[in-house]
C-alpha cells in the first residue's frame, strides 16, 4: 500500500516538475519573443509551440512595415503637392484652430498660421462667415471677396473634414490674375469697337455726302475722296498694329537675335524719321556715347525707336527738339528718346503703355494708342524694360533697356 502510494507520489512529482519546466520554458520563450518584437529584431524561437506564433507575428510585422512605408510615401507625396500647390490650404480642428497651413496659404495671409484661430488667420469677415456656415450646416461653402488692402481677389471653398468631427478644410484660390485678364479682355473689346466706330462713321458720312451729289462737284469731290483715303489708311494701320500686337503677345514673333551696334540702330531710326521731323519743324539729333553691342533683333528694336520718335515728333511743337541717345548701365544698354514737347500729365504716365490708351483724344494727331503697347511687348521680349518720365508743358523722355547678354 505504502509502496504504491510512494510510486504514485513520485510519478506525480515528476509530472509536476515536467509541467513546471515546460511552463517556465514557455514563459522564457514568450519573454524572448516579446523582447525581439519590442527591439524590432529578427524573430526566432527554439520552442516548437512558439515558433508558429513567431512566424505569424513576423508575417504581421512585415505586412505592417509594408503598409507603413506605403503610407510614408503617400504622406511625403502629399506634402510635396501641398508645398507646391498655388492654392492655399488650411486645416482647422473642431475648436476652429488652424492645425495646418501650406506655404501658399501663408503667402496669402502671412505666417505663421498654425495655432491661430481661423478668424485671425483669414481675417476677412465674409470668408469667416462662410467657414462658420460650413461648421453649422455641415455643407461645403464657397465665397469670393476682394481684399482692398492687397487688391487680391480671393475665392474660399470650405468643406467639412470627414475624419475630424467639427473640423474643416479650407481651400483659398487667388483669382486676381484671372479677374485682371477678364477686365483686360472686356476693355479691349469695348475699346476696339469704340475705336472702329469713329472712322467707320466718318467713312459712312463721307460716302453718303459723295452719293448725294458731292461726287460731281469738282472741288468737294476730290477733297472728300482724300479724306476717305486718310480714314482707310488709319483703319489699315490699326489693323496692322493689332495684328503685330497679337503676334507679339502670343509669342508668334520669333526674335532674330544678333549682336548689334546701338549707335547704328539710333542712326538708322533717325534717318527713317528725318523727313517727318523736318516737315513738323522739329530738330532731330543723335547723341552717340558709343556703348557696346547688344544681343537684339535689330528690326524690332528699330521699330520701338521709330514708334517713340514718331510720338516725340507728333507731340512737339515747331521749333522743339527730339534727342536720341544710348548709354551702358548695369549690363544693359539704355536707349532714350527725349523731346521738348507737350509732356504727359503724371496721372496718365502709368497708363500710356496700355492698349488704346491716349492721354487726350482731342490732342494733336490721330494715333491708335497701340504704338507704346507694341514697343513695350518688343522690349519685354528682349528681357528689357520700358518707362517714361515727363512734365506737362516741358517735354518727355522715353527710355528702354536691352540687356547686353
Ligand atoms: P498713339 O498711336 O496714340 O501715339 P501710343 O501708344 O504711341 O499711341 O501713345 C499713347 C499716348 O501716349 C499718346 O496718345 C499720347 O497721348 C501719349 N504720348 C506718347 N508719347 C508721347 C510724347 N512723346 N509726348 C506726349 N505724349 C505722348
Helix content: 40-55%
- Encode the helix/strand succession as letters: HHEEHHHEEEHHEHEEHEEHHEE
Query: How much strand content do the residues show?
Result: 15-25%
Can you tell me the CATH superfamily of the largest domain? Histidine kinase-like ATPase, C-terminal domain
Task: Tell me the number of structural domains.
Answer: 4
Q: What's the pLDDT, averaged over the residues?
A: 88
CATH class of the largest domain: Alpha Beta
Question: What's the main sheet like?
Answer: 5 strands, antiparallel
Q: What gap, in angstroms, lies between the N and C termini? A: 118 Å
CATH topology assignment of the largest domain: Heat Shock Protein 90
- Broad structural category: alpha+beta
Major β-sheet strand ordering: 2-1-5-4-3
CATH architect. name of the largest domain: 2-Layer Sandwich
Count of alpha and pi helical runs: 11
